[in-house]
Amino acid sequence: xxxxxxxxxxxxxxxxxxxxxxxxxxxxxxxxxxxxxxxxxxxxxxxxxxxxxxxxxxxxxxxxxxxxxxxxxxxxxxxxxxxxxxxxxxxxxxxxxxxxxxxxxxxxxxxxxxxxxxxxxxxxxxxxxxxxxxxxxxxxxxxxxxxxxxxxxxxxxxxxxxxxxxxxxxxxxxxxxxxxxxxxxxxxxxxxxxxxxxxxxxxxxxxxxxxxxxxxxxxxxxxxxxxxxxxxxxxxxxxxxxxxxxxxxxxxxxxxxxxxxxxxxxxxxxxxxxxxxxxxxxxxxxxxxxxxxxxxxxxxxxxxxxxxxxxxxxxxxxxxxxxxxxxxxxxxxxxxxxxxxxxxxxxxxxxxxxxxxxxxxxxxxxxxxxxxxxxxxxxxxxxxxxxxxxxxxxxxxxxxxxxxxxxxxxxxxxxxxxxxxxxxxxxxxxxxxxxxxxxxxxxxxxxxxxxxxxxxxxxxxxxxxxxxxxxxxxxxxxxxxxxxxxxxxxxxxxxxxxxxxxxxxxx
Length: 507
Prior knowledge:
Blueprint: E1 27-36, E2 41-46, E3 55-66, E4 78-80, E5 86-88, E6 98-106, E7 115-122, E8 125-134, E9 138-142, E10 168-173, E11 182-188, E12 196-201, E13 206-210, E14 225-230, E15 237-243, E16 246-251, E17 256-260, E18 275-280, E19 287-292, E20 296-301, E21 306-310, E22 325-330, E23 337-342, E24 347-351, E25 356-358, E26 382-383, E27 390-396, E28 399-404, E29 409-413, E30 428-433, E31 440-445, E32 449-454, E33 459-463, E34 478-483, E35 502-505
């Protein structure tokens, strides 16, 4: 989807594109205290805050005492770690009960949250420490790379540091030491310095970096950041999304929290006041999926119903009117929905029947109903033409792509970057076949690029490549699918929520 910021008037939202980063450092945190043997000496092993970069240097301190608790006056300590970990010196000298060394770790892709154990040994005893690995199991590439580079664990999420516009190719590893694996990433308003990026970790916390003019980083301020930080007080999160300058999180209990810009009620809390801390989307306790448009929020409920809130001028709330809604409203007639997606101001609801329903803006044919050029779309759900056996739908900026039960693909809407995949750059207000694809098993979209995995095990891509989204050595857009190789070591499609950047996570 496209991300345009909705401020004085409606703008487009940015969805996180699938880009890959290379993260050079991973850190470790102690999960268990150092322990000593029953020998004549007691050894305690520590690092600063019990953390260390996975691909860098960390000071290690070994405290040695005798069985009376007195510092050992002299001697040598031998240090041992797992494969890929080294120490300099490997046998430091004890001085007044203390020995020091530098540990070097080299595993960039060590799983955050896993344990690394180092052991110190003297002639009189030994001690060990278990360290919990911190890291970033994600890559990003293409435009507006986030959190890449080397050195200290910072993250460039589009806060105007000068590197926001560079095309990252090949994809780079995300530069940050997280305490848990990254589950997914999402990017809002990802054009130039307006980008902000969110990371959902396996431990249920959310972290953010980038621009923060409306509080979209959720940290209680409106100060932009080039370093990642956790959204305070937000836990139990199982899904995130970002649209415009607004962020949303779905909780394990079915509730939804939101923060950031709220000029059209897109926070869903009954006000139009922006919030720099998460607020509760009202009257929803059983959400199973969320998506964010340029200035709207949509939620799929466990009942198969859909709720909508935010900007209403294009009929985007689906409740029959064109008035913005600061509280969620029911979308009439939908009670068998199984998945939702969206373009900027146009949602897509996949039904159990295999049909797709939509409403809202249709200026580029994104409703797939044969109509285009309309800025005042139907304010109630209509059915996308000619599709009755869809099993997946993915929106992008100005259109959508559906995967059929046959393995074929259909696309409609904006075609300027080749997103329709039919060899053309023209828009289409009705679904057209994506050329040559008959065995797709999964699809993914970013702002203006599309990817598919095939039953043969191969991958194809099409659409925008002007910022090296495909990492194929060119900046040539593809108007039809052609072979594409996922960046190593991901081996798969970009994660949902990609906007301008193309983002991958390692599972």
